[in-house]
Specification:
about 900 residues, alpha/beta, six-stranded mixed beta sheet, 28 helices, 27 strands, elongated
């Protein structure tokens, strides 16, 4: 989080600053919360507190401007051509940077060079590609809220580089859920107000913070937004409107003018997407790998086969907000299926998109008046591809989303023709250095270009003439920005220099001279070049303004290309790896045959992953309790279910033989081990906090994935908690979410006799002598043991240690048999979890039961008589009298 740097106040008795430092202080006073990059020749300098801060953050040498004075000015600087590298580091650390440029040529300036702040860069308002990730959005988020115990929160999200603008209003909890899905780079908060606790925790966890004063908040935000956006949304709450108006006004200010790239605000519905909390995103490794992992070891790494930045960002949004509406999901799946069924067209589309630039961001920079010459050339290149892309889309089967996209593939012929005719193919990066306008586009530019070219020809001819006149064969004409054009003569030829040569500069081995004729030609050449640069800049600005008139239709085309790219990418993954279309419905049942973990399968290679079936049904198979050894695949099985739900509801095909997915509203996981040292929470505390949230927030339509809950404390404590948690998930009345629970507590398998909707599963293992072979197959029924010592042997532990472990295990299991109760009767709900009889009473009961069993004549015993005996023995021996 950034901390504003206060502008320096002149100390009493301090010497009056120089005109340059007065100029610096004037600009700094207007941007007190930004680090000011002050251009001085070939460097950007920072002074005073900015210099001290930047030197610490960037590892720069801290020096001083007037080190011999009693009060030297701290100074740090960076070369002008490395500016963006250093600025990017400051932005990542949450700081703002104001760029103060020289507004005139130093060689032409009379007195102090005029300077001005040309842009203010903040973490959430970036437009330049230099500072952006191609496949990820960076949001500016403004918050406003009501007072009271249950405040209403208004929030607005702006993606400055694309113009995306959304706003919503909800409870604190719903706002936290929605905002945690987004990558917020900068938060805008009202000064002097304390955030609600949960929101404060979210803001503290990521992004820079900018505080807005009272003047930043519109007195009538709805009217302000209505005036700005002719096709705005119907505001459903004043807090959302207040946040939206403040965000737009802030962006205007830091961009130095109206942020014209902003689209009309769209309303955020906080109840239309699958909720995947932070713990679930981390546990399932949807976007971020586990510590030490790589991006390709995530679901995102598997599915992102997009060819453009807009396509990648759209696909990421689909995964961040999987849908709840089966009809909307089917629309996405229809589009994916259309591309799967036309592999040749899909490949042709992807090849075309691979040559396209980021039309979304190009359009935003064009609208904001920030597009450079290379941006407009990239725009023309991309738009020239649209007709061939449209022809490819016509070849695929009809799908509603593809049909809508096709309607917005505008050809933009007039704009393409303008840009191709006006601009050279490879313009320079700098806007005011000339070389922008194509020969033949503008008569005045052509005339000035010819004048500059002719003048240089004349200078070349003058060089040849002077060599002949003076007899100095090594004489040459040179140029630099300080002295202009000159004749250079080596020291050994000084005696031959004519009297009309005027000395301009002395070097170690040569002298530089000018002549009246060279000065005259220089004036013509440089005058023509200056006029040409000015003329080309004016023509470029005119072309850019004409192109900006097409922004609305460009935005539609950019959105259409993103849609095509995202759906074709999912189709590419599906076709390449044998994924199937899931059947998504409002039913509660989840039934998948041959399910495969998409990330593990990719890491293992084709055909090596062992698929498994998954059947979850709240009526009969609500809780699946999975036991088995470590390394056998229990955790993978859990994560597979979670990832397939996310994929299906995002609109992706899934790795399976067949899949029926009943809509999930919230996905909870408690997997892995992590702590929160800064908050004072141990691993076990974090686990219990997450479990508490699951039990509090899960609904009947939720999916809960629990992996080894209770292992962070003593065996009996952990078993007791795991037992009680399982009962709570099953209880009537209750939420009864669909649940998978992987555990090493084999005692929990007894619950299948008591909880009718709990089913035991286990991971199959084959023993071969002293070795075990993990089959990675899920089967019905409980596991018989955990094979932990076998796994330890595979890990390389020595034979003596393992032998000792087996001896200890035998002793512990013997003691445990006496300490733990016999299986609890489902008809005896009052029996305590670990209730044990008095030793003598237990022996008497066992002796009586044994005698009764020995006296039975099994040949004569009918089924009815057997049931009667069981009931009698249950009453006699089951109550512990």
């Amino acid at each position: 989080m950034s901390t504003p740097v206060e502008p320096r106040v002149k100390k009493r008795g301090e010497a009056k600053p120089s005109p340059l430092m007065e100029q610096y202080r004037a600009h700094k006073s207007r941007h007190p919360d930004a680090i000011l990059f002050f251009r001085l020749g070939d460097f950007y300098e920072m002074f005073y507190e900015d210099a001290e801060l930047a030197s610490r953050l960037l590892g720069l040498t801290l020096t001083s401007r007037n080190r011999n004075d009693p009060d030297p000015v701290p100074l740090a600087g960076v070369p002008w051509h490395q500016r963006d590298t250093y600025v990017a580091r400051l932005l990542r650390l949450g700081h703002k940077v104001a760029i103060c440029e020289q507004l005139e040529d130093a060689s032409q300036a009379k007195g102090l060079v005029e300077r001005g702040v040309t842009e203010v860069l903040t973490p959430g308002s970036l437009l330049a590609e230099t500072f952006l990730e191609e496949a990820a959005s960076r949001y500016l988020a403004a918050l406003s809220w009501s007072e009271g115990e249950r405040p209403t929160v208004g929030f607005a999200l702006i993606e400055a580089s694309t113009g995306e603008f959304r706003a919503g209003e909800s409870s604190v909890g719903a706002a936290v859920i929605e905002l945690s899905r987004q990558r917020v780079a900068e938060w805008l908060l009202p000064e002097g107000r304390g955030l609600p606790r949960d929101l404060d925790a979210l803001v503290q966890s990521s992004g820079a913070v900018s505080m807005l004063g009272a003047t930043d908040w519109a007195s009538d935000p709805v009217a302000a937004l209505g005036e700005r956006f002719s096709a705005g949304i119907e505001w459903k709450g004043v807090w959302a409107a207040e946040s939206a108006a403040a965000a737009a006004r802030y962006l205007d200010r830091v961009q130095g003018g109206r942020a014209a790239q902003l689209s009309s605000p769209a309303w955020i519905a906080t109840d239309d997407a699958l909720i995947v909390g932070d713990a679930a995103r981390r546990g399932l490794e949807i976007f971020e790998p586990s510590v030490g992992g790589k991006t390709e070891h995530t679901l995102w790494g598997v599915l992102d086969r997009t060819r453009t930045g807009p396509g990648a960002r759209l696909l990421r949004r689909w995964l961040e907000r999987p849908l709840l509406d089966p009809a909307a999901i089917d629309e996405r799946l229809d589009a994916v299926q259309a591309w799967v069924e036309r592999p040749t067209a899909r490949e042709r589309l992807r090849e075309s998109l691979g040559r396209a630039h980021d039309l979304e961001r190009l359009t935003a920079r064009l609208a904001a008046g920030k597009a450079g010459p290379r941006d407009l050339v990239a725009l023309a290149t991309t738009l020239a591809l649209v007709p061939e892309i449209a022809a490819t889309v016509d070849e695929v089967p009809h799908a509603a989303r593809l049909d809508r996209a096709a309607l917005h593939l505008h050809p933009h012929r007039e704009l393409v023709e303008l840009l191709q005719n006006a601009l050279v193919d490879d313009p320079p990066l700098a806007l005011r250095e000339g070389g922008l306008i194509r020969t033949g586009y503008d008569a005045e530019c052509d005339r000035l270009r010819e004048a500059a070219r002719s003048g240089k020809t004349w200078i070349g001819q003058l060089e040849a003439n002077e060599r002949e006149r003076t007899g100095i064969a090594s004489l040459r004409v040179g140029y630099n920005r300080v002295f202009g054009y000159y004749f250079e003569v080596t020291k050994s030829q000084q005696a031959r220099v004519p009297d009309d040569f005027e000395r301009r500069q002395t070097l170690a081995n040569a002298e530089r001279f000018v002549t009246p004729e060279l000065k005259r030609l220089e004036g013509e050449v440089l005058g023509a070049e200056d006029k040409l640069r000015a003329a080309e800049y004016e023509r470029f600005v005119t072309v850019r303004e004409r192109a900006a008139a097409h922004v609305a239709r460009l935005g539609e085309t950019a959105a259409a290309l993103a849609e095509l790219d995202a759906s074709a990418a999912l189709a590419e993954v599906a076709a390449r790896h044998g994924y199937v279309r899931p059947r998504v419905s409002a039913e509660d049942r989840i039934e998948v045959r041959g399910a495969r973990h998409p990330v593990v399968e990719r890491a293992l290679g084709s055909g090596r992953f062992v698929g498994n079936d998954i059947v979850l049904d709240p009526a009969s198979r609500q809780i699946l309790l999975i036991t088995g050894p470590n390394m056998a695949g229990k955790s993978t099985y859990l994560r597979t279910v979670g990832l397939l739900v996310v994929m299906a509801q995002a609109g992706s095909f899934v790795p399976a033989e067949s899949a029926k997915i009943g809509i999930v509203d919230r996905l909870f996981t408690r997997v892995g081990a992590s702590d929160a040292v800064a908050a004072g929470h141990s691993t076990f505390m974090v686990e219990m906090v997450e479990v508490a949230a699951i039990l509090r927030d899960a609904t009947r339509r939720s999916l809960v994935l629990l992996d080894e809950v209770g292992r962070g404390t003593s065996t009996y404590d952990g078993l007791a908690l795991a037992w009680a948690i399982t009962e709570d998930l099953h209880r009537e009345p209750g939420a009864r979410p669909r649940t998978l629970f992987a555990t090493h507590y084999h005692e929990l398998t007894r619950l299948a006799a008591e909880l009718p909707r709990l089913v035991n599963l286990h991971v199959r293992v084959r023993e071969v002598g002293d070795d075990v072979v993990f089959l990675h197959q899920i089967a019905e029924g409980p596991a018989d043991r955990s094979y932990g010592i076998h796994v330890a042997r595979l890990a390389g532990l020595g034979a003596p240690l393992l032998a000792r472990a087996r001896k200890i295990l035998g002793d512990l299991e013997s003691q445990r048999a006496h300490a733990l109760p016999a299986e609890r009767s489902p008809l005896d709900p009052q029996l305590g979890l670990f209730q044990a009889r008095e030793p003598e009473a237990a022996r008497d009961h066992l002796a009586a039961l044994a005698e009764a069993l020995r006296s039975l004549d099994l040949d004569e015993l009918t089924p009815r008589a057997a049931l009667s005996l069981l009931a009698e023995w249950q009453e006699r021996f089951g109550q512990g009298e």
